[in-house]
Amino acid sequence: AWELWKQGLGLQLMDPTLCSSYIEDQLLRCLHVGLLCVEEKAVDRPTMSDIISMLTNEGMSLPVPTKPAFCTGRKVVGDGIDGNGSESVNDISDYEFEGR
Questions:
Q1: Do 3 and 74 contact (CB within 8 A), yes or no?
Q2: Mapping DSSP to helix (H, G, I), strand (E, B) and coil, where does residue 86 land?
Q3: How many whole angstroms from its chain centre is CA 39?
Q4: Cα–Cα dist 30/36, whole Å
Q5: How many CA atoms lie within 13 A of 89 on its CB side?
Q6: CB of 30 closer than 8 Å to CB of 36
């Protein structure tokens, strides 16, 4: 998310099932607020009341986010299931689907 944001390509993070049922400015604002929520220093992160204000008041200017402390590469997932019957979008979870 961070790398796409820096490159001005935040819309590539959109869930494709949304098709054209989203408002671009609102989607980018949600991404912006999300990046503020993962600031390295907790004191720099917005409070929940700040987040609500940021999301509901489109005229409110938002601070520029900085690079999150933890940032991994991007993995594009097709149907989410590999040939082995296991699914792990983030390569951290690893589990198998088995019938009863």
A1: yes
A2: strand
A3: 13
A4: 10
A5: 5
A6: no
Question: Buried b / exposed e across 61-93, counting CB within 10 Å, b at 16+?
Answer: eeeebeeeeeeeeeeeeeeeeeeeeeeeeeeee
pLDDT tens digit string along 22-53? 889 999 999 999 999 999 999 999 999 999 99
**CA-CA distance, 18 to 72, in Å (whole number)?**
25
d(CA 70, CA 97) in angstroms, rounded, equals 29
Report the run of H or E that residue 24 belongs to, with start and end.
helix 24-36
Q: What is the CA radius of gyration of the chain?
A: 17
Higher pLDDT, 98 or 55: 55
85 pLDDT exceeds 50?
no
Q: Kindly tell me the burial class for residue 54, based on how many C-beta atoms sit within 10 Å of its own C-beta (0-12, 13-18, 19 or more).
A: buried
Does the pLDDT of residue 92 top 70, yes or no?
no
Residue that the structure tokens 């019957």 belong to:
85
